Amino acid sequence: VARIMNLAVSVVGQPPQAPFLLVSNHLGYVDIITLMSVAPGVFVSRADVAGWPVLGLLARAAHTIFIDRDLRRDVARVNTLIRDVLASGRGLLMFPEGTSSGGQAVLPFRSSLLEPAVQCEQAVSYASLSYETPAGAAPASEVVCWWGEMTFFDHFIGLLSLPRIEATLTFGERPLQADTRHELARLLHEAITRLHQPGAAGSPAWA
Fold first, then answer.
1. Distance (Å, rounded) from C-alpha 23 to C-alpha 107?
2. Is 51 within 8 Å of 20 (Cβ atoms)?
3. Whole-prediction pTM
4. In the list 40, 49, 132, 137, which could disulfide-bond 166, CB 3.0-4.6 Å?
5. Percentage of residues in the chain with pLDDT exceeding 90?
C-alpha cells in the first residue's frame, strides 16, 4: 500500500519489538500505513473507519479494535480487548489525541485507553510522525494530513496524485511508565511534543 501511495518512510531511532504498546501523534489515515510498515501490530481506531473504502477493509483484515467514542461505556469493552492483545504478546498501536490534526502541534491526550498499560505495568513506547511533499506541491498539512472538515474521497484522490510523500517516523529512546493513566498521558504528551517537528507537517518541499 505504501508503494501504491508513493510513500517513503524514514525511521529515526529504534522501533519497538513485540510485545509493545506504541502511541504517536495523529495526522490522518496515512499514519496507519506509515506505522504498520515499520512496527506492525493491532490498531485501536474510531468505529467509522471500519466502513471506509479500501482502508476499512485493510483495518478489519489487521484485526483493528474499533471504538465508538460517542459511547462512554465502550471504553471498558475496548480496554478489555487491549489487555488481551498485550497478554498475547503482540504489538498494539493507538493515537491518544483521539483525532487528527494538521501537525502544527500535538493535541492534548485522552488518558482512558492508557488504563490497561497502567494495570498491566506495561511500558509505553512513543513516536512522532511528520510528512513532507515535493517542491511545487501543496503543503503536507493540506494534502497528506486529514483533519478538520476535509472529505475522505476528495482527500484520497488528491493524495494519490502526489508523485511522492516523505514520512519521518521518530521513535523515543525508551518506553515510559507511570502509576496513573493521567500521569502516563502527561509524560507521553511531553515526550512526543519534544520529538515533534511542526514545520515538517506543513512544509511545501522536501530536500
1. 13
2. no
3. 0.88
4. 132
5. 60
Angstrom distance (rounded) from CA 124 to CA 17: 12
Distance CA 113, CA 43 (A): 12
Residue-wise over 109-147: b if at least 16 C-beta within 10 A, else e? bbbbbbbbbbeeebebbbbbbbbbbeeebebbbbbbbbb
Q: pLDDT at position 197, please?
A: 64
Three-state SS annotation for the chain: CCCCCCEEEEEECCCCCCCEEEEECCCCCHHHHHHHCCCCCEEEEEHHHHHCCCHHHHHHHCCCEEECCCCCCHHHHHHHHHHHHHHHCCEEEECCCCCCCCCCCCCCCCCHHHHHHHHCCCCEEEEEEEEECCCCCCCHHHHCCCCCCCCHHHHHHHHHCCCCEEEEEEECCCCECCCCHHHHHHHHHHHHHHHCCHHHHCCCCCC
135-159 average pLDDT score: 88
Confidence check: pLDDT of 207 > 50: no
Tell me the C-alpha distance between 70 and 68, whole Å: 5
Q: Please, what is the Cα angle at 100 between 99 and 101, to 5 degrees?
A: 130
pLDDT at position 56, please?
Answer: 79
Cβ(173)–Cβ(84) under 8 Å? no
| CB-based contacts of 151, cutoff 8 Å, min separation 6 | none
